[in-house]
Amino acid sequence: MSQLLARGGRRLEGEVAVQGAKNSVLPILAATLLTEDRVELRGCPRLRDVDASIRILKSLGCEARWEGDSLLVDTAGLKSWSISDILMREMRSSAIFLGAILARCCQADLSYPGGCELGPRPIDLHLAGLRGMGAEIRECGGALLCRASRLLGRDLVLSLPSVGATENLMLAACGAEGTTTIANAAREPEIVDLQSFLNACGGRVSGAGTSTISVEGGRPLHGCSYRIMPDRVVAATYLCAAAAAGGSVYLRNAREEHLSAVTAVLREAGCGIRPDAEGIACCCTGRLRAVRPVRTAPYPGFPTDAQAILMGALLRSQGATVFEETIFENRYRHVDEFVRMGANIRTAGRVAVVTGVERLQGAPVRCTDLRGGAALCVVALAAEGETEISEISHIDRGYEDIARDLRALGADISRRDP
Ligand code: EPZ
């Protein structure tokens, strides 16, 4: 199994270009099913989850190939509406294909996506919305058998602002007769990127970024060439690495308006954050201060995906910080690994209290999930001595090459393949 080896104690200095956003490109890859024309996705990140999506598209009869950092997708050859259980289980968010397949084929057979390290990942809101649009969905033996001779535009209301449900219903609505509105929609920047992609293909989608999205269905969509937005969680990771280790870094392509909840906390902790037209500069000197309670929430609140990463940066801060994880049930699995490195953390249900310590020690640790793994890299750069990070396939799901990027910022970290 591959590992990362990191040696802490070095201030970071340097510049890195932030990769394309995983959580934008995954729904956009599903959206390519809505047109039979070719699509070029520029700045597409090379990730395990993108590879899994490509395997799903190819299993449906589509073509996909890389040209530099562009992924070219051609769905003209689509000949199936069924995704195998193995492919569904490879990636938790594979449910995002359901709405697009239904819109294209009027039927879809796929298995229930499994839960994941973060806890149960239900899709009841996805299914309720699709049923509201006229889909007949039978759930039997872990399989979802979906039929929709016609999808009808409807006024839908989500009981909570689910990112995946919002995206799935946007895609299904493109194939519906009439207009669909989605109220209490998620407002994440990745949803705005999906809207921009759909409109670049000739769609008529509006309201993304607000709580009410409107989709005019039945419009034939054509191909396009589209640049994926930069990954705000990857940007947050590298800002937190500079905060943890100290130093002065520049993140090219990062857009502060996408991660202002994170930069606000880092400023409160004592970091100097300066955005400009091309990216974000971050300068951190001296010991960080503990901050007011950090409560994760749907966008524009503090992103759950940055919870472990920020926690890692605050392990040596002066004082104590309270975290409350409101989105996922089981998103503190990284805490035990942080404690192995000398952190002082107490958890009780969805609350974690981090009391800053003077020093952290490198140790052999293992990734428990994608963002917990990235957070271990942040902590390793703030610890004394060497840290060996295993099970890094979790990190490869969402980071093209975290060691490469952190080395560009001056970190002593490398990948060791068996
Ligand atoms: C997306 O997951 C992201 N993944 C996650 O990023 C992110 O943490 C999450 O949104 C929240 O921002 C992608 O975009 C691929 P949700 P998603 O539906 O769509 C409950 C990462 O690290 N819920 O907004 O699955 C659910 O259980 C990943 O990049 C229902 O109850 O998130 C959770 O508690 C991790 N019923 C909450 O809503 C449903 O039908 C938020 O889930 C759907 C969701």
3D structure, described in words:
- There is one protein chain.
- The chain is α/β, with parallel strands linked by helices.
- It is 31% helix and 26% strand.
- It has helices spanning 22-31, 48-59, 85-90, 97-105, 124-132, 163-174, 189-200, 232-245, 260-269, 307-313, 335-340, 370-382, 393-396, 402-408; strands spanning 3-7, 12-17, 38-42, 63-67, 70-74, 82-83, 107-111, 136-140, 143-147, 155-157, 179-183, 205-206, 212-216, 224-227, 247-252, 272-275, 279-284, 294-295, 320-324, 344-348, 351-355, 364-366, 386-390, 412-416.
- The strands form six sheets. It has a four-stranded mixed sheet with strand order 22-23-1-24.
- Helix 1 runs parallel beside helix 7.
- The longest helix is centred in the middle third of the chain and has 14 residues, at 232-245.
- The model has no long low-confidence stretch (mean pLDDT 96).
- Bound molecules: ligand EPZ.
- Residues 22-23, 26, 93, 121-126, 160, 162-165, 186, 304-305, 327-328, 370-371, 398 line the site of ligand EPZ.
Q: What is the average per-residue confidence, as pLDDT, rounded to a whole number?
A: 96
**Tally of strands:** 24
Rounded radius of gyration (Å): 21 Å
Taking pLDDT < 50 over at least 5 consecutive residues as the criterion, the unreliable ranges are: none
Give the helix level as a range of percent: 25-40%
Highlighted features:
single chain, 418 residues, alpha/beta, 4-stranded mixed β-sheet, elongated, binds ligand EPZ
Could you provide a short overview of the structure?
Helices cover 31% and strands 26% of the residues. With 418 residues, it is of the alpha/beta class. The longest helix is centred in the middle third of the chain and has 14 residues, at 232-245.
